[in-house]
Design a protein that fits this description.
elongated, alpha/beta, about 230 residues, five-stranded parallel beta sheet, 7 helices
Amino acid sequence: MFTSIAIVSQPGLEVDEIREQLRNPVRFKVREFFSLDEVNQGLKQFPFDILLMRVKVFTPQHVQMISRVRAAFPSAGLITMSPEIDPSAKYQTKTIQRHKLLHEALELNDLQLIVEKLAKGETSAARLHPRVRREGECELFDAEKGTRFKARFLDFAQMGARLLVNPKTPLKKNMRLQLHYRSTSEPTRIHRIESSIVWAEINSGMVGTIVNGPQQVIGMRFIAAL
């Protein structure tokens, strides 16, 4: 079954990257508009499940705009993408239901997953601590079973991280694991953080699966430093 997506954005190279993320004719049906007025006019011809809006700088004024859109289209999932986000505006979006605000440079690769979750009616709280790019390997330790396995950072935030892992047994939500990794400023120092898995998804990259075996992308929430 198709997920219908309306994209509202001025033309530009950035929109090409969004198109590429959603270029799947089996799953997504996409139509583009230059303004919300065009969306209103074209709604009868294109009823959408997801409304994706791109703005150059996300400000408190855009929060008011999103609130009006939420009222006009109560059943649609809403996504806003921007390369520059005012932190105070980001905080204000936490009260808007079924809306995700994505930082274009750091979270573009999350777009398909967010679309699928919103289309299913799923939602999550706004992320108050921005992600930062982080590369390198780390280790996960299951203290209960005494097992260790390698992982790789995808990104990092103040309260958690996303990792790519190759576990022998699939990891599940709510598992408690210790995350061990080297400090970037002091390479001889090992950070150890008690963490909990808040979500786990199968990595759908075919090439990576063939080369490395079954992979998962997991979201970790930090609980306490050890």
